[in-house]
TrEMBL record:
<protein>
    <submittedName>
        <fullName>FG-GAP repeat</fullName>
    </submittedName>
</protein>
<dbReference type="InterPro" id="IPR028994">
    <property type="entry name" value="Integrin_alpha_N"/>
</dbReference>
């Protein structure tokens, strides 16, 4: 896996296989460093619902296990991860679970343009965002209108998130069989009517 594990702004080659856990850093001269073992790998690293995202606000990929009312965070320490911390959410806040609904995409993404990884749920007719408050806490959900795909056609695996216009807020790209529908993010407030681009 290529990921910036140590926060130096360069991708590292993370290796987690057959008891060999560590990474190679990519240097400014275009070379990979010798293998650097990680100090600790979370026991839940390989859990199907484990997600890597900057949860603590330190600019590093933490490991998160999202529950409906709490988040278990393994904070990144640049050369490994700390022991788990269970963070309860504020009363009334219920978080979406990745893989719990095959008709929805649940992911971490900056759709508010704030520079943070927020928890996002996208269905055929709605985009909801739980703002990242830092250290495993999330705010009440915000709905961003404008995105819609006919329910019979919708497949969450055909959604791509990317900042296509340089605004800092991620746009939604929906891949059809022969075209792409681009929904531009308007500063984390809503998505525009789709722009359709043929692939033929």
């Amino acid at each position: 896996m290529l990921i910036d594990i140590n926060g130096d702004g360069k991708l590292d080659w993370l290796v987690t296989s057959a008891g060999v856990n560590g990474f190679h850093s990519f240097s400014s001269d275009g070379q990979w460093s010798p293998f650097i073992p990680v100090s600790a790998l979370p026991i839940e690293y390989f859990h199907p619902q484990a997600q890597l995202a900057d949860i603590s606000g330190a600019g590093l990929p933490d490991l998160a296990m999202i529950g409906p009312n709490s988040v278990r965070v393994y904070a990144n320490q640049r050369t490994g991860w700390q022991a788990a911390e269970n963070v309860a959410q504020k009363d009334g806040i219920r978080l979406p679970l990745a893989g719990n609904n095959e008709r929805a995409l649940v992911a971490f993404a900056d759709i508010l343009g704030s520079g943070q990884q927020h928890l996002v749920e996208i269905t055929s007719s709605s985009v909801r965002c739980w703002p990242n408050l830092g250290h495993g806490k999330f705010g009440s959900p915000i709905t961003l209108p404008g995105f819609s795909v006919p329910d019979a056609e919708f497949n969450p695996e055909q959604i791509w998130l990317a900042d296509t216009d340089g605004s800092g807020a991620l746009d939604i790209i929906y891949a059809h069989r022969t075209s792409l529908s681009l929904y531009i993010n308007e500063s984390g407030n809503r998505f525009t009517y789709p722009q359709n681009h043929c692939l033929a």
